[in-house]
Design brief:
The complex is a heterodimer of chains A (386) and B (284).
Chain A: H1 2-17, H2 19-47, E1 52-59, H3 63-73, E2 78-84, H4 90-98, E3 104-107, H5 112-117, E4 124-130, H6 135-154, E5 159-161, H7 172-210, H8 212-217, H9 223-256, H10 264-267, H11 270-297, H12 301-323, H13 338-349, H14 354-380, H15 382-385
Helix pairs in contact in A: 2-12, 3-6, 7-9, 7-11, 7-12, 7-13, 9-11, 9-14, 11-12, 11-13, 11-14, 12-13
Chain B: E1 6-8, E2 12-16, E3 24-41, H1 44-49, E4 56-68, E5 72-76, H2 83-90, E6 98-103, E7 106-107, H3 112-116, E8 119-123, H4 134-144, H5 149-163, H6 178-188, E9 196-200, H7 208-223, E10 227-232, H8 235-241, E11 244-249, E12 252-258, H9 259-263, H10 268-280
Parallel strand pairs in B: 5-10, 5-11, 8-9, 9-10
Antiparallel strand pairs in B: 1-2, 2-3, 3-4, 3-6, 6-7, 11-12
The chains are: A alpha/beta (386), B alpha/beta (284).
Chain lengths: 386, 284
């Protein structure tokens, strides 16, 4: 037992004397708390937006429905505008909802308000169409359904909604687009990080640990070239890894969603794919540069791996923005990692703007240049390198 | 002429070595070190460990010496004396706080890139990457030193045969013996055939056979007119291969002289302890 106690004591002493080990053990808890708290707040906001304005295309509009809507939404920050679809047929109206021009299409029978007042023998049919591939459309559908339910209650149910009708106008491709825009950016961000994490600490901190960096630094090669060379090579490896993972994900997702005949290029143009590639092209060297700087500051591969895991956590947090359907705003283009997550999500959901993508790409390239400059400075620092 | 007496000229020095007193060499100054000073900040942890309140440790304090073309110059001193710091300053890995050193007339402070082109540097702390082969590493360091392809191949053949690496040229470093790895480290530090070779503890951790190969090679380099500056705390090595030594104690130069003048008939180890006592006085 004395031997056991000695071993235990040694292990505990090691743990309590190593501040870095403490941090490694405690930081995940702090991060999890922070991530889940932020995530919870954002999710709550997404699911119950504090304000929203919807346009509902209406065939044979009902005055009472409009009055009821105004009454029910009074005091709230929601607004529903009913637009008369007088000159259209039903199919045209449905197409406009599919195209995202309107959040929903509500079709009443002709003279609905007077017919319901006459207490008809058979219930009147009301149809409400929406697009589940669009989050606004889904939210609008829930709200209008609620208002229709109140209308029915007031009139002792003389009509029914969507009787024997599929109300969801979303095509399988709409659902795929939504799924892609939510999942793929997050996965891509993580794949790149995982690839970079497996090689960067070893390549930079490992060289320091082995002493080989000193042999390179005493050659006539400029230190900025050593820095650029490392970042470019590591970026290329990470990009290859990310591309492989990207292809695996994109090719398997349709099968996962039960769309085996789905063709990616039916949905996305060459420009979309090129835009995504450009964003990745700026993201990968940024991540590698950031990890290289952290690895250079570390004394060993082990320490470098711990410090670079912070980048992984940051990417996970930013990657979640795509799942939450965060709308790109200009300031986000200047926030590294987040700009790629939001930018990729926008491209995949078909809402991307050229300005946002270009600004994100440009900002990331500027950050990469700064990181290379910093890395070259660190390579010059004897305190850091030796 | 007395042993160890200098006959100085302009940029060249004629000197009478004790061991070969009948011969006199005229030598060109190739490395001039002037009043180098270097301090390192001490962390709270280091201050506690070293039981000092000082926030800085003086590693090198006014070190000056000159090395000549075609000689083996040794820095001799106990651990922590400042030998490695001096060599790191000379190889441009770290910068001196004060003073300067000139390699073939090029300042290590102002022209580090030019200095790097003329030196080979090897540290005993070097561990080569396990998954590369000797052939690849030789080519890699040759490229960094911009060695022309034809020269590279010729030099590789010569050095690999010299050290018996040729049989393992395409074996991964991880599969080589410790001795072979050390020999390879030595080889890749001189791929560009530099005029000055700086070795920090060249035989540290080597078995006797490998150490012998290394010391013989250093003597051969010297015969070819190369200047070798090495640090060591192994007296027998210094006694055997160094023409002159600089004894460093506590970051300061205690003596610079030929082995013969320094030992004056006694062993280098005894001579060193005399110098050590002289410097430290009643401290020890």
């Amino acid at each position: 037992m004395r031997g056991l106690w000695t071993i235990l004591k040694k292990e505990f002493t090691r743990f309590f004397k190593d501040k870095k080990l403490w941090l490694t053990m405690l930081l995940p808890g702090v991060f999890i708390y922070a991530i889940y708290s932020v995530l919870g707040t954002v999710l709550q906001d997404q699911m119950t937006p504090s304000s929203a304005s919807y346009s509902v295309l209406t065939m044979h509009p009902s005055e009472h429905m409009e009055e009821l809507t105004a009454r029910m939404l009074a005091g709230s920050n929601y607004e529903i505008e009913y637009v008369d679809a007088a000159d259209m047929d039903g199919e045209e109206a449905k197409q406009l909802v599919k195209d995202g021009m309107f959040e929903a299409f509500l079709s009443f029978p002709e003279n609905f308000d007077s017919l319901v007042g006459e207490e008809p023998e058979t219930p009147l049919d009301v149809y409400l169409y929406y697009n589940s591939g669009d989050t606004d459309s889904s939210a609008c559908y829930s709200l209008v359904t609620e208002i229709l339910a109140s209308y029915k209650d007031e009139l002792f149910e003389p009509f029914r909604v969507n009787h024997l009708t599929a109300a969801d106008l979303a095509e399988p491709t709409d659902i795929a687009t939504m799924a892609f825009s939510m999942i793929v950016p997050y996965l891509l961000l993580i794949f790149v990080i995982s690839g970079a994490m497996s090689i960067t600490p070893e390549s930079v901190a490992g060289e320091k640990e082995r002493g080989t960096i000193a042999t390179i630094l005493v050659t006539p090669v400029r230190r900025s070239y050593v820095a650029i060379g490392k970042i470019l090579a590591l970026s290329a490896f990470s990009l290859i890894g990310a591309t492989s993972s990207f292809l695996g994900t994109v090719l398997s997702l349709p099968k996962l969603m039960g769309l085996p005949d789905f063709n990616l290029f039916d949905l996305y143009s060459f420009g979309d794919v090129f835009g995504m590639f450009l964003l990745l092209l700026s993201y990968v060297p940024f991540i590698v540069g950031l990890m290289s700087v952290l690895s250079t500051l570390a004394k060993s591969v082990k320490e470098a791996t711990s410090s670079t895991s912070v980048v992984m956590i940051l990417s996970m947090v930013c990657g979640l923005s795509s799942m939450l359907g965060l709308t790109p705003t200009l300031w986000m283009a200047f926030v590294p990692i987040l700009n790629v997550a939001v930018g990729l999500s926008a491209i995949l959901s078909g809402t991307a703007s050229f300005l946002f993508s270009a600004l994100s790409f440009g900002a990331n390239i500027v950050y990469v240049v700064l990181l290379v400059f910093l890395l070259a400075k660190l390579f010059d620092s004897e305190k850091v390198m030796l | 002429m007395d042993k160890g007496k200098w006959l100085t000229g302009r940029g060249a020095v004629c000197y009478n070595f004790g061991k070969t007193s009948k011969r006199m060499y005229c030598m060109e100054e190739i490395l001039v070190v002037e009043n180098l000073k270097k301090t390192f900040p001490l962390s709270a942890k280091q201050r506690k460990a070293q039981k000092t309140k000082l926030r800085k440790k003086v590693a090198v304090d006014g070190v000056s010496f000159t090395a000549y073309r075609g000689e083996i110059f040794g820095l001799l001193g106990p651990n922590g004396a400042g030998k490695t710091t001096t060599l790191r300053i000379l190889s441009t890995l770290i910068k001196a706080d004060e003073g300067d050193a000139f390699v073939n007339g090029k300042s290590v402070r102002k022209e580090p890139a030019e200095v790097r082109a003329q030196i080979g540097f090897l540290t005993s702390e070097l561990k080569l990457e396990a998954f590369f082969t000797p052939d690849y590493l030789f080519n890699f360091f040759s490229d960094l030193h911009r060695v022309p392809l034809n020269v590279r191949e010729e030099r590789k053949k010569f050095l690999f045969e010299k050290f018996g690496i040729d049989k393992y040229a395409f074996t991964k470093v991880g599969d080589l013996s410790t001795g072979m790895k050390q020999k390879l480290s030595l080889v890749i530090s001189i791929v560009q055939d530099p005029d000055i070779i700086i070795f920090d503890e060249p035989t540290n951790g080597l078995d006797v056979l490998t150490a012998r190969v290394v010391t013989d090679f250093l003597l051969e380099l010297k015969e070819r007119g190369k200047t070798i500056v090495l640090s060591t705390h192994i007296f027998s090595l210094a006694e055997k291969i160094c023409d002159r030594v600089c004894v460093i104690i506590d970051g300061k130069v205690a003596r610079v002289d030929t082995i013969a003048a320094l030992t004056a008939g006694q062993s280098l180890e005894d001579a060193f302890f005399d110098i050590y006592r002289e410097v430290k006085g009643d401290e020890e």
